[in-house]
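Lab notebook page, bench 4
Experiment: in silico fold of construct C2
Operator: M.H.
Input chain length: 402 residues
Purpose: comparison with the prior construct
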Amino acid sequence: MEAFLLILCWFQCVEGYSIKQKAQLHANLSSGYDRMIRPGLNQTVPTIININFYLTSLEEFAMEKSKMTVMGSFGLEWTDSRLTWNSTNFDGDLNQTSLFVSNIWAPYFILFNPHYEQMPILSGEQSCNVYANGKIVCLPSDRFVVTCSNSIDFYPFDTQNCTLRFYVPGYLASDIVFQPLSPTIHMDYFEENGQWFVKNTKNYINRYSINGINVAVLQLEVIMQRRSKYYIFSFLLPTIYINLLQIFVFVLPVDSNERVGFSIGVLISVVIFLTIILDKLPVAPNVSNFMTKLLFDMVFSSLMVLAVIIVSRMHHKETDVKLPRFMKKILRIKDEDTENTAVHPKKIAKSLDILFLIAFSIAVVLNIVFYFIFCAVSGATLKSFHSSNRPEDTRSIFGRPS
């Protein structure tokens, strides 16, 4: 049985290609090859580059620097008819080899909106797979640091949109055609970020006009939403608790002499929260809705301090106070003697407490309700905007249609 297997293997097994044959193949491919000329026997026909992008991690989104850092890998594929061979000339199994980017034509792919200096995606030290039919496949990976605008209007329920733009300088849009194989970025190998959740991605081509020259730009759009649970429990809920707590200052007995201290303590708490939020937010021309809410909280707290002082001063007044009839109606003070307009100070102080309690309760609750309503309505508007399809268009370098 063993002898039969050895004889069968002798006739069936084919000897693989040698290193000498591979070196000969490389010599044949490089002979007369000009890497300065793009592929295509007919140079009027554009070179088609198939593109995939695999996002592996969202490392950082620094709002104060308008910077996003991601790790990812490109899948680039094109055909070069000059890099073809007959595998039967190399024992029939030399169907694929690897060549350095410095030895073949490769698109000088660079980032259009870098945060630092521009760097090519395909460098000379990288290698690409070359197949016998002329197909070339490159899988460059890198850390991409891009500049992107941000909005803090809906912090901490904000959604940010950042775009990576790539193009090949020196070639017109009619020379090279980018062809995304997927309308979205591949997330198969993505590692989740602790602060941001990638909500959606887009992969499309725009045509920009730079100094009158039309250039095709690959745009990889990342739409991310802040994980707001931490901010809800750390900032939002404590501020709401303080808002509701400060109203009860008008329930405290005036004679306890704790009203002014209590109201000033709440005011200091609101100011501290406002300072913490300011330290975490970037300098931006727009103001966060949460900061606006805190500003109104500080205004209400300041007015409450003044109201407490007025009530305390009125409570400890020794002589009766003359009030006009319309003031009695506002304060709901009933007096059997219609001719005498003087009212006991403690009676006025008690009525002022009820009035201030109702007025500030309505103001605080409306401030909270309006904040959530505005965030919900604006968030729905942004969701509708981001879910709309982005068609391929032609723009100038300044963003205006060309």
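Observations: The two ends are 78 Å apart (CA to CA). The longest strand covers residues 47-62.
Next step: discuss at group meeting.
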